[in-house]
Structure formats: C-alpha cells, structure tokens
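Hey team,

Filing this mostly as a record. A colleague (T.K.) asked me to run one chain through the structure pipeline before their review meeting, and I want the input and output archived in the tracker in case anyone asks later how it was produced. No errors, nothing strange. Just documentation.

Input sequence:
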Amino acid sequence: MTRRVSYFYDAEIGNYHYGQGHPMKPHRVRMTHNLVVNYGLYRKMEVFRPRLVSASAMTRFHSDDYINFLKVITPDNMQDYIRQMQVRLVLVHCCFLFIKMFVILVITS
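Output structure:
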C-alpha cells in the first residue's frame, strides 16, 4: 500500500507579519513551499488549498463574542478594547496582534 503525504498551502499566509518577537514566521512557510515546488516534491503529495472558514463555522469551537472580538481588534484600536483584552488573557499573553489578524485565522483554521 502506497502512502501519500497531504500538503495544505495557501499563498496568502506568507503575506503577513505577526510582529517582532512572534515565534511564527509566515515567510518561512512561503520559503518551504518554494522548496517543495522547485524540488518537485509536490508530485509525490496530495496538494490542497485549505477552504476558508466562515466566522459562523468558527463559533462551533469559540463563542460568538470572541469571534467578533477577533474580527475587530487591531494593533491600532487595541486601546479601545483594554477591558475585553483583560478578560481574554490568552490573547494578551500568548498572541501578538497584527493587522488583518482575523484574515489569517480564517486561512489557517
């Protein structure tokens, strides 16, 4: 029985910068994809472009309030949401805010 590798890639992921000090480096995903293509490894894989997930689909795992919060929060307006951010300590302590953060969440969910 031959086993194949499934490979998921969306070119949009490499267009984002998560901020100074964030451990995820989206440009590395793009570099890896270029290696996969240039070495012909994609021929030995099942290549998929992930389906974009709707906000309503995300509410299967998260509250509506939390998803709506992620849609509107940006580095520029985070001062307006200090109280909500204090409630959501997970976002404050382990996540860096960046422009179009919700878009990358839709791509990677």
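Quick notes for T.K.: The longest helix spans residues 26-38. The helical segments are 26-38, 55-58, 64-72, 82-87, 89-94, 101-108.
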